[in-house]
Amino acid sequence: MAELDASLDHIIPSSVLPPFWAKLVVGFVSLVCFARSYDGDFVFDDSEAIINNKDLQAETPLGDLWHHDFWGSRLSSNTSHKSYRPLTILTFRINYYLCGGFHPVSFHVINILLHGGISVLMVDVFSVLFGGLQYTRKGRRLNLAPRSSLLAALLFAAHPVHTECVAGVVGRADLLGALFFLLSFLGYCKAFRESNKEGTHSTFWVLLSILLGAVAMLCKEQGITVLGLNAVFDILVIGKLNVLEMVQKALHKDKSFENIAVLRNGGLLFRMALLASGGAGVLYVRWKIMGTGPPAFTEVDNPASFADSVLVRAINYNYYYSLNAWLLLCPWWLCFDWSMGCIPLIKSAGDWRVTAPVALWLCLIGLICQALCSEDSHRRRILTLGLGFLIIPFLPASNLFFRVGFVVAERVLYLPSAGYCMLLTFGFGALSKHTKKKKLIAAVVLGILFINMLRCMIRSGEWRNEEQLFRSALSVCPLNAKVHYNVGKNLADKGSQTAAIRYYREAVRLNPKYVHAMNNLGNILKERNELQEAEELLSLAVQIQPDFAAAWMNLGIVQNSLKRFEAAERSYRTAIKHRRKYPDCYYNLGRLYADLNRHVDALNAWRNATVLKPEHSLAWNNMIILLDNTGNLAQAEAVGREALELIPNDHSLMFSLANVLGKSQKYKESEALFLKAIKAHPNAASYHGNLAVLYHRWGHLDLAKKHYEISLQLDPTASGTKENYGLLRRKLEQMQKKDV
């Protein structure tokens, strides 16, 4: 190991080798790489996991976090994603509480600091992996590979593939999982701190390591894999197992096979039993909590897993592995989402892409052969641990044990990248040792670090807002329907409907079964009064996905606009059948009944909307207006007061209730509500016009004249206001003549 570390002396200056300075440099580099994302918005999955997640708010009991998935749905639900990360959600909730709401800066800052802390911890982890485990008499661990550990930690801190985890707030799950993963590993190392006798250990630290592994899993599922890494480390480093020697003796039926020290090491076998039983127990509890079994993913999420042929599945899985390896090796083409046709299936051996998994396995086999057959025990240990750190944390995302809901995901490479950085550092050291052009090697290493830091900063900027993030994906995954959908949605939210239509149409072209794109496109066409095409799209969407409640509701709105009232009612009822608690659908159903003069049914529908969503202002308003128009002033007043108790600052409710009170000759109270509504929304012509009518009735003619004039300034085309103003002027002229 001393030789490898010495071969890096021309790359890592001795001035930064003391532990404090090494960690300071790594921490500084990690913060510089991702600092640009500190003031970014909530983007992509942040909306569902944070903004729309009721588990973050104080109204939700803390106990519910242990029964809900990452997105706030009950784990027992058949629609649950089954991603169980209660400790991550708890940190979001603390964030929300301390900063007083959804202020993204505080969420982003925590993520950046977490990555900095993990990168600093990596210095200690790499020092163990490269230099082995050795303590002083005082129990202080020695760093026998200061240069190697520092270089590997710098490569980790500045790897661009980490941007999704750091710049995307939901990436905190991966960060927290990695943090406790590393703490578990370092804790396991401490089990051998006070022992100089081979085979002895501290059971406390082993059990604490298992506990930290369980905590890591409660932050992100792959955290549990640390127990596998601990076992590999124990066998290779503590037990000093020579795998090649064991295989040779087993093949030759050597009698000395039974006398291998590792197999007779009771302490090692006891620790393996603890790790195995601890891991099995944690996984069993996790499975019981999931309730209804694994989540149900769709073909667009992971098309290879739905292929009929086992061979096609195997080839495509291996192709996905090669893409993950390429992202580690050359992290220039990064995308927020790799699904929806971004990576077409390999369906024949003639596809040139089959060369990628072949190349990957040739590299892996070469590394495995070196890890097993090298005569250098340090080389064997480093390569085996590097491969272990690369492969073991990746196993939950490999599709080997269960189907996952993605094709490629940069976030799952956060921990495996540590193994890659370890292997890369080893490669640089070996190359430097066998070449005289050491300055060239140093220049290459520094160049890679600089380019990676630059890429991190650029990519962090792209993650600051959704527009940049989504558009950055167009060049990486032009065949990804979800990319076009998200660009279109972002444009639609900004009011650019024409441009949004173009991207939605492209999303539907790329994926003819993309019901969400059809639904959003149908909505825009509905607003542009292109009702026939909107109906066709929405009808197709519900035909493809019969339980798509939002599409059924929007189809009902279009059918209502086309005066096809019976079909509209059926669509609304179908939407409610598939989503029982759907206040917006009840609201639209109420509008349909109002158009048909079915007033009782309309009031019942709007009342259902307000029961499900007490802050549904439009439903409350429509109830007040309908009761007012039908002469039920007392009932209208009662509903208005009830609504204002629930939504006290809604100016539209103040306005509606003020109209009712005015008709009931409660002029003073009506005036106060009108003035309060005008203060909240001073440019509403109707507010000034109706206040003028109140003053007109009340006999405050000068004030009526003033507000009629303000209303007409704001809206000169208001015929009713013009007529009332004309009546007032004639009355004032008559009064002046009488006075004369």
UniProtKB/TrEMBL annotation:
It is an enzyme of class 2 (transferase). The keyword Cell inner membrane does not apply. InterPro entries: O-mannosyl-transferase_TMTC (IPR052346), TMTC_DUF1736 (IPR013618), TPR-like_helical_dom_sf (IPR011990), TPR_rpt (IPR019734). One of its GO terms (molecular function) is dolichyl-phosphate-mannose-protein mannosyltransferase activity. It comes from the Eukaryota. TPR repeats lie at residues 481-514, 515-548, 549-582, 583-616, 685-718. The chain crosses the membrane at residues 20-38, 112-132, 144-163, 169-189, 201-218, 224-247, 268-287, 354-373, 385-406, 412-431, 440-458. Pfam families: TMTC_DUF1736, TPR_16, TPR_19. One of its GO terms (cellular component) is membrane. Its EC number is 2.4.1.109. GO terms for biological process: endoplasmic reticulum unfolded protein response. Signal peptide: none annotated. It is a multi-pass membrane protein. Gene3D superfamilies: Tetratricopeptide repeat domain. Keywords: Endoplasmic reticulum, Glycoprotein, Membrane, Repeat, TPR repeat, Transferase, Transmembrane, Transmembrane helix. Belongs to the TMTC family. This is Protein O-mannosyl-transferase TMTC4. The lineage of its organism: Eukaryota, Metazoa, Chordata, Craniata, Vertebrata. The gene is TMTC4.
